[in-house]
Design brief:
Layout lengths: L2 E10 L3 H12 L4 E4 L6 H5 L2 H18 L15 H15 L5 H7 L2 E3 L4 E4 L2 E4 L2 E10 L3 E3 L27 E5 L3 H12 L3 E6 L9 H13 L3 E4 L2 E8 L2 E8 L2 E7 L1 E4 L3 E3 L13 E2 L2 E2 L12 E3 L10 H15 L14 E3 L4 E6 L2 H8 L4 E6 L4 H5 L6 E6 L5 E8 L2 H13 L4 H5 L10 H10 L1 H4 L2 H12 L2
Parallel strand pairs: 1-2, 1-6, 2-3, 6-18, 8-9, 8-14, 9-10
Antiparallel strand pairs: 4-5, 5-6, 7-15, 11-12, 12-13, 16-17, 19-20, 20-23, 21-22, 22-23
C-alpha cells in the first residue's frame, strides 16, 4: 500500500447519488476519486428502478393488448414470453449503462477505483492497495435487501430485488412476502406475464400511503387475480415436494400457501458494514449513518447521502442530496435539506403518487384546521377518451389555501405529481393552480379541476348569488 492518491473529493459508491456528486464536482474543477466495489450505476440501474420499470413496461404491454378489444382492435389470443420480457429488461440496462460507466467518468476526469473502500482514519481510505487522502469524503453506499428472520427462510431458495431480474422462467406461482412498492410492482408485473401471484403483508399494503388511494390499487390487484393476505404474520417457510410452503397466521388461524417461487420484498437496510466508520469517527447504527441537515456526519469532513443515511429510499432523493453536498463541500454554502416536498410513486397500473402531507398526517399536525378536495379521473375527458377512468386526485390545504400535500392514484400519476411538488416547495396557494391554463384535453386538467373545486363552496352559494344579483341591478 505504497501508492498515495491525494484528491479534493473522494466518493464511495457509484450509485445515483455518488455518480451525481462525482460528475458535478469534477466538471466544476475539483479533483475526484470515485470508488465502487460492485457494478457502476448501483442498485437503481442494475437491480432496482430501471429493471423493475422495464419489466412493468413489458407486462403492461401484455395487459393493454388483452384490453384492446374495447377500442375495436382485434388482437386474438395474447401470449407472453417471459424470457423475452427479461431480454427487454437487460437491453434497457445496457442502453443506460454507458452513461454510468467507468469509461465515461474517467473521460470526465475522475479517477475510478473498482474495489472495496475502507476508512483507515478520519481523512483516509484504502482501496485496491491504494491510500486515498481527500479534503472531503462522500459516502454513497446505498442499501441492500433486508431479509426478515422467519423460521426456515435460510433453508429455502428465494429471490430479492437483487436477484429477481436474473430469473428467465415465469413462475407458476410466485409468493411475495412484503406488500410495499417493490412487492406490489413485482406482483402485478408477474401476474400480467402469466404467473399466479400471492402477496403476504404484516400490515396493510402500501402502509405509508393514503388509505383512500391504496384502496384503488387493492381493488385493481384483486380484480387481476392477485391474492392479498394483509395483517398476517408469517410463521415459517419450508419446502415440500419441490414446492415452497409459507405458513401464515391470520386471526389465530394458520394458513398454508404453496407456490413455486418466493420473493422477499420486506424493505432495505443501509449498507454501513465493512466501511471502517469507527476509524473515521463517523457515528452510525444499523439504521444508517447519522447526518445533520447539511448531510455532514459526526466527522465534518465526511458527508453521507442517499439510502445509507436511513432516510427516504428514493433515487431522486440521492440526486437531491448530491446537490446539497456539492454546495456545501465545494462552495462552502450552508445548504440544508428540505424534505417537505419529496414526491414518491408506486408504478403499478394505476400508479399511486404522493407528495407532502397526507390527509392523515395533516390531521395529526393541524387537527381539523385543514381542507380536503378531490376530483376523479372519471370526470376528466382525456381519461374518458383513453378508458383510464379509475382513480382520483386528493389535495390537502390549510383553510386559507396553502397546499400541504397531494395524492394521486390513476393513469400517469407519477407524471402529474411534479406540479404539486413544485407548488409545495414554493409555498404556493391552491389559487395558483386553479388559475393556470391547462391544455385540453389532458390529464393535467385534473390538477386545475381539483384546485377549482376548492373554491366551489365559496363561489356557488347564496351569498355569492345575492352579490351577483345586486351588481346586475346596477346596470
Amino acid at each position: 500500500m505504497n501508492e498515495v492518491i491525494k484528491t479534493d473529493i473522494c466518493v464511495i459508491g457509484a450509485g445515483s447519488g455518488g455518480l451525481s456528486v462525482a460528475a458535478g464536482a469534477v466538471q466544476m474543477g475539483a479533483k475526484v476519486v470515485l470508488i465502487e466495489k460492485g457494478k457502476m450505476g448501483g442498485d437503481c440501474l442494475n437491480t432496482g428502478c430501471v429493471p423493475s420499470k422495464a419489466l412493468l413496461a413489458a407486462s403492461h404491454a401484455a395487459s393493454n393488448a388483452r384490453a384492446a378489444s374495447q377500442f375495436g382492435v382485434t388482437t386474438g389470443p395474447v401470449s407472453t414470453n417471459f424470457a423475452h420480457a427479461m431480454d427487454h429488461v437487460r437491453s434497457v440496462i445496457a442502453d443506460i449503462a454507458p452513461h454510468d460507466s467507468v469509461e465515461r467518468f474517467e473521460k470526465l476526469g475522475c479517477t475510478v477505483i473498482q474495489a472495496e473502500a475502507r476508512f483507515t482514519g478520519p481523512e483516509e481510505v484504502i482501496a485496491d492497495g491504494k491510500r486515498v487522502q481527500a479534503k472531503r469524503f462522500v459516502i454513497a453506499t446505498g442499501s441492500h435487501a433486508s431479509v426478515p428472520p422467519i423460521d426456515g427462510i435460510a433453508d429455502v431458495p428465494f429471490f430479492t430485488n437483487e436477484t429477481i431480474f436474473e430469473n428467465r422462467t415465469c413462475p407458476d406461482h410466485l409468493i411475495i412476502i412484503g406488500g410495499g412498492p417493490i412487492g406490489l410492482e413485482m406482483a402485478q408485473a408477474h401476474r400480467e406475464l402469466g404467473a399466479k401471484v400471492t402477496v403476504i403483508e404484516m400490515f396493510t399494503i402500501l402502509p405509508k400511503d393514503d388509505p383512500d388511494l391504496v384502496a384503488v390499487i387493492r381493488d385493481e390487484l384483486e380484480a387481476a387475480g392477485i391474492s392479498l393476505y394483509e395483517k398476517v404474520k408469517t410463521q415459517r417457510i419450508e419446502t415440500h415436494n419441490g414446492q415452497i410452503r409459507v405458513m401464515i397466521e391470520r386471526d389465530g388461524t394458520e394458513i398454508t400457501i404453496e407456490g413455486s417461487h418466493l420473493l422477499v420484498a420486506t424493505g432495505r437496510k443501509p449498507t454501513v458494514d465493512n466501511l471502517g466508520l469507527d476509524e473515521a469517527a463517523v457515528t452510525y447504527s444499523p439504521r444508517g449513518i447519522e447526518v445533520d441537515n447539511r448531510l455532514r456526519t459526526s466527522n465534518r469532513k465526511i458527508f453521507a447521502i442517499g439510502d445509507v443515511t436511513g432516510g427516504l429510499q428514493f433515487t431522486h432523493m440521492a440526486g437531491y442530496d448530491a446537490g446539497i453536498v456539492i454546495r456545501n463541500a465545494l462552495f462552502r454554502l450552508p445548504a440544508k435539506i428540505d424534505h417537505s416536498a419529496v414526491p414518491w410513486v408506486t408504478y403499478t397500473s394505476p400508479e399511486l403518487a404522493q407528495v407532502g402531507l397526507s390527509e392523515t398526517s395533516a390531521c395529526e399536525k393541524f387537527g381539523d384546521a385543514i381542507r380536503v378536495v378531490t376530483w376523479t379521473y372519471a370526470e376528466n375527458d382525456r381519461a374518458r377518451a383513453e378508458a383510464r377512468t379509475k382513480g382520483f386526485i386528493k389535495v390537502v390545504t390549510t383553510p386559507k389555501g396553502k397546499i400541504l400535500g397531494a395524492g394521486i392514484v390513476g393513469h400517469q400519476a407519477g407524471e402529474l405529481i411534479g406540479l404539486w411538488s413544485l407548488a409545495i416547495s414554493k409555498k404556493m396557494k391552491i389559487g395558483a393552480i386553479a388559475g393556470m391554463i391547462a391544455p385540453y384535453p389532458t390529464l393535467g386538467e385534473l390538477s386545475k379541476r381539483v384546485a377549482g373545486a376548492w373554491y366551489t363552496p365559496s363561489l356557488f352559494n347564496d351569498r355569492t348569488r345575492k352579490i351577483v344579483r345586486f351588481l346586475l341591478k346596477l346596470g
